[in-house]
Amino acid sequence: MLARKPVKAAPELELKFQLGAGAVEALQGEAFPLAEGSVAQLHATYFDTPNHALRDGGFSLRVRRKSNSFVQTLKHRSGGDLFQRDEWEIETAGPDLDLAALEGTPALAAIADQPLAAAFTVEVERRTHVWNRGATCIEVVFDTGLIVAGERQEPIAEMELELLAGAPQDLFDLARDLQAKAALTLAFESKAERGYRLAGHDGVAALRAQASAVLPHTTGEEAFQQVAREALVQIAGNARLLQRAHNPDVLHQMRVGLRRLRAALSVFKAMLDAEGLNTARAETRWLAGELAEARDIDVFLQRAATPDEIDESPGRAAFFRALRIAQAEAYERALAAVRSERFRTLLLTLAEWIEVGGWRRLANDEQRALREGLAADLAAPVLDKLDRRLRRRSRRFLKLDAEARHDLRKQAKKLRYAAAFFGEAFPRHPKRRQRFVAALKALQDQMGELNDMAVARAVAMRAVGRRSGELAFAAGLEVGRLTGEEDRVLEAANAALKAFRRIKPFWPSSDGRNEDLNLSRARLRSV
């Protein structure tokens, strides 16, 4: 048996890109000539339990064959960093797992007493180049090949940049230069994650938000990076899935990722640089706009009555044909956005800003204090402000028009995201926090239903356009069905607001504002 190397964790700092059409040829023909790189044929088998317990725990476990040697690797990403993972690696005598090597790693708890077996395989041709500029050294790897899970296959065309020496900014500088030469899309999904999808673990299930990792000892800088990284992963991952299937939940979760990121920009605004903040806001606003029409039509169709529930008429059939055509066009717009150079640039720009942006070097005493101090100290005044604003703007709710209710819904959503970001940073009142978040969710649900009713009217009008009166009449009937209970939903939303006002915040009020906040709540309860 080969001598075993010590099993220890070693960090990686890398960027991964999916290669678009012609990208391999463009980069290997100009920037990285084939003759200058080393070539290896790699075969990797990934192992897991029958119910994929390792995958659920954030692990990947593989044995890779390279020439006549075998290496067993365990990787773990806990969600704290986009570009760094823990890795344990040893040489093995053959293609089988060395179970003893897993001793001392966190994977054992996920496996428990379950058996491990092959889940899928990855076959790649790997071309490796080393890029040097002064003190900077970056390994550039091109992987082309195939993932195989049973009868299913998926092609691989990736490039990875790993920083061997130099500053993290050097990695992004090279990435930006290469992106100008070829279609490169920043990706956060590993071969293991793709393999699991192919094996049926996730299919095309949407990527949902991860739980916040902002704890009482987390700094402001760490908190922003954790929250923004996870939102960016959710955006990029769902964008990739959207290109595989027109899945309404995937589109919705991509928009959720955008809203979470935009909420983080607002919550952490005081410690961010103006240039980076403005760019992030502008580009995420553009992307959200490109996805909005498809989502609005999806919601309309999900809420609409089925043909079995009502008598189908020629006018109604024509209206839904028009709506399906509009839906297809809206999805094409969304797909054009996520396939565009602007979207590829957006992902890399945001990732670079989150990791090494100018906000991390601001010398202003207040900004530096927010960045280096505890996130909880930053969070309390932000939560206070959002809470007071929601209570103030909800006065005389039943007299608000649709636009004002929509604005109120956005305020509730922003407070809910902030509460989710910082919930674990205030562990003193867990039950109060649960009640607060539950009340916000109930309010947001009712406000969302009201918004869906308002959007339904606009969707129907756009789908009908200048078409016949019969089609417009059918559209009006459908909108009437969707909005017929608006008064009831208004009352339910008002009741949810009153219930929310009775809930105490779970965080300590900042700057001695308890009296003002209590007075505000007392006034609002009387409305």
**Order of strands, widest sheet:** 5-4-3-2-6-7-8-1-9
Distance N terminus to C terminus? 78 Å
- The overall pLDDT average reads 88
Shape: globular
Helical content band: 40-55%
Segments where pLDDT lies below 50 for 5+ residues?
Answer: 1-11, 512-527
Secondary structure tally: strands: 9
Total helical segments:
17
Brief synopsis:
The chain contains 17 helices and 9 strands. The chain has a 9-stranded antiparallel β-sheet, sandwiched between helices.
Overview of the molecule:
By secondary structure, the chain is α+β, with helices and mostly antiparallel strands. The chain has 17 helices and nine strands. It has a nine-stranded antiparallel sheet, with helices on both faces. Helix 8 packs antiparallel against helix 9.
Supply database-style keywords.
527 residues; alpha+beta; 17 helices; 9 strands; globular
What are the SSEs and their pairings?
Blueprint: E1 14-19, H1 23-31, E2 38-48, H2 53-56, E3 59-66, E4 69-76, E5 86-92, H3 107-111, E6 117-133, E7 136-149, E8 152-165, H4 168-179, E9 184-187, H5 191-198, H6 220-242, H7 248-267, H8 274-303, H9 314-338, H10 341-356, H11 365-372, H12 375-393, H13 402-422, H14 430-464, H15 469-483, H16 486-501, H17 514-525
Antiparallel strand pairs: 1-8, 1-9, 2-3, 2-6, 3-4, 4-5, 6-7, 7-8
